[in-house]
Amino acid sequence: MSVTLREEAEDQFLEELFLSMYKQLLKYAYSRIGNYHRAEELAMDAFLLAREKLPDVMESRNPEGWLMKTLKNLIMHEFRTRKLIHKLFADMPEFTEPAAREDDGGFELLDALTPEDRGLLYAAYVEGRPMGEIAKDLGIGYSACVKRMQKARARAREALGGP
Which of 7, 26, 95, 130 has the fewest Cβ atoms within 10 angstroms? Predict the structure, then answer.
């Protein structure tokens, strides 16, 4: 299978953008998040989105600005997700069984999530574990873990009545 000139140009463009911007994005993400591993993931996620939207990025008058704006949006999403996770687990007693509860007391949301969703969200946002480590523990690939996390977040938002 031969690589076209366009594909070569796209790969070169993305590689140059990565080499010129990765450290800056990582530093910015770390300064906002305070977790180096998560900052790495967010910086790489910005480049993954750039790869998906490469024609738009290449046509942009400011590809570096596009990347930075994308990273800022990812960080804002991170903060919203953290807030959601803290809301999920804030009132959760460690050893209370569902049958022993007299009132719902905020457990409705937890009951709406599968144990797998709760485990993923807990590992990422309460324990602060990097996505790669969670994927390894689950015996799945990084991309599969990211997809499962996206679905778990979506179900949590839906259970809270959010968009």
Answer: 95
> In sequence order, which residues have a C-beta less than 8 Å from that of residue 28 and are 6 or more positions away?
68, 71
Q: What is the pTM of this model?
A: 0.56
For residues 124 and 149, is the Cβ–Cβ distance under 8 A? Answer: yes
The burial class, CB within 10 Å (0-12 / 13-18 / 19+), for 127 is exposed
* Cα distance between residue 160 and residue 81, in whole Å: 12
> Are the C-beta atoms of residues 154 and 117 closer than 8 Å to each other?
no
C-alpha 36/C-alpha 28 separation (Å) is 11
The domains found in the chain, sorted by start residue, are: 1-72 (no CATH), 91-163 (1.10.10.10)
Sign, CA dihedral 33-35-36-39, equals negative
Which three-class secondary structure string do you get for 65-87? HHHHHHHHHHHHHHHHHHHHHHH
Report residue 78: phi and psi, to 5°. Answer: -60, -45
For residues 107 and 88, the answer to whether their CB atoms sit within 8 Å is no
Mean pLDDT (the chain) is 81
Predicted confidence (pLDDT) per residue in 35-56, tens digit: 888 889 999 999 999 999 999 9
